[in-house]
Amino acid sequence: MIAVVQRVLEASVVIERNTKASIEKGLLVLLGIEEADNHEDITWLASKIVNLRIFNDDQGVMNVSAKDDGGNIIVVSQFTLHASTKKGNRPSYIKAARPEIAIPLYESFLKEIANALGKPVQSGEFGADMKVHLINDGPVTIIIDTKNKV
User: Fold this and answer.
1) Is 85 a catalytic residue?
2) Domain 2-148 has CATH 3.50.80.10
3) Is 136 strand, coil or helix?
4) What is each CA distance from 145 to 1, 77, 138, in whole angstroms?
5) Furthest-apart CA pair in the chain: how many Å?
6) pTM higher than 0.85, yes or no?
7) 79 catalytic, yes or no?
């Protein structure tokens, strides 16, 4: 799994002109799932994201996590994170999991990250044409790949 984690002042997901999800201060997580991902990846990544100390403390130092800060989270599935651009100019998505594998993993990730955060998270809609709006705070953007845990 690959996650692009963005610290935001606000974020929303719009599908067919209807707002599906909306948060104020928190994290926007773009999540890419590949064929080789499993429950271990889900557990590790959810914990890592919720406990990332990327919010400022009273001294202005990034030392507070979303869990500590009561921040909100939106998770958006994004298979294009697994694009391979090695050959030519048209990306290949061969590593991205097919829907029959990705959807159950995505749904499990949503449950796991909500459990780790201690409150519900919002999400986009798997496979939908989404418009993601955000105000990146910092900007702070972190990429986490479960295949590079060590």
Assistant:
1) no
2) yes
3) strand
4) 6, 15, 22
5) 49
6) yes
7) yes
- Catalytic-role residue among 6, 78, 122, 146: 78
Residue type, 37: D
Catalytic one of 79, 109, 122, 146: 79
In this predicted model, what pLDDT tens digit does every residue of 44-102 receive, in sequence order? Answer: 999 999 999 999 999 999 999 999 988 899 999 999 898 888 888 998 888 899 999 99
State how far the alpha carbon of 49 is from the alpha carbons of 39, 58, 66, 117, 128, in Å: 15, 21, 8, 9, 24
Active site residue 78: yes
Mean pLDDT of the chain: 95
pLDDT in tens, 96-139: 999 999 999 999 999 999 999 999 999 999 999 999 999 999 99
What residue spans of the chain are helical by DSSP H?
39-51, 66-69, 99-117
Identify any residues that bridge with 18 across adjacent strands, giving them in sequence order. 15
| Token pair listed for 77 | 């599935």
Q: How many CB atoms neighbour CB 137 within 10 A?
A: 18
Ranges of each domain in the chain: 2-148
